[in-house]
Amino acid sequence: MVTLRPTGIPDLAFVTGLERRDDHVSVIGQWTDLEHLAAVQSPKREHWIIEEDGLPAGYLIAYDARAEGAGVYVKRLLVAEKDRGIGTLALAKYLDHGFGALGARFIWLTVREGNARAQAVYRRLGFHRLDAAPEFDRRLSMATEAPAAGAFRMLIKVSDWDGPGPSLQP
């Protein structure tokens, strides 16, 4: 079973160790321990440990930008073992949280052009490519960050989220 729980300070060694693994360094941004600690402690960010059967399996970081009219931004999602559906289930659980507990109207993320696997997962959950009007694009960038070169935004609205489909149910 895949669950999310808030990251605690004792979890930071797991988080940074996973992030700095040789197979992750080239595909995910590298934060210092202090940056992760700041995200754990910030009221505007959520830092989650993804667990599988009670053991750490990854992490997710999200920014709450609702006050700026920029929804909730999933900054980072990283799992230790790929191709097992853990990240998909974790993101589905986060969407339930974001649309439920947080009351977000939309949730978005960025993905690299060449990351077809991640794009397919996001589309399967209901995300679509966002080609935003310039004013909305600026609002998202000002509230969080602009997509890196070679990346684009994907977004899901609360009205498009019915919860995880049957294929994602345990």
Short description:
The protein has 170 residues and is an alpha+beta fold. Helices cover 32% and strands 28% of the residues.
Description:
The chain is of the alpha+beta class and 170 residues long. Helix content is 32%, strand content 28%. The chain is built from six helices and seven strands; from the N terminus they run βαααβββαβαβαβ. The chain has helices spanning 12-19, 22-25, 33-41, 86-99, 116-125, 134-143, and strands spanning 2-6, 45-52, 55-64, 72-79, 106-112, 128-129, 151-157. The chain has a seven-stranded mixed beta sheet, with helices on both faces. Strand 2 (45-52) and strand 3 (55-64) form a beta hairpin. The chain is globular and about 40 Å long. The termini are close together.
CATH superfamily: Gcn5-related N-acetyltransferase (GNAT)
Please count the helical segments: 6
Number of domains: 1
Identify the strand order in the major beta sheet: 1-2-3-4-5-7-6
The share of residues in extended strands comes to 25-35%
Described by strand count, sense and barrel closure, the largest sheet is: 7 strands, mixed
The N- and C-terminal alpha carbons lie at a distance of 7 Å
Name the overall outline.
globular
> Which sequence of SSEs, written as H and E, runs from N to C?
EHHHEEEHEHEHE
**Secondary structure: number of strands:** 7
> Which spans have pLDDT < 50 for at least 5 consecutive residues?
none
CATH topology: Aminopeptidase
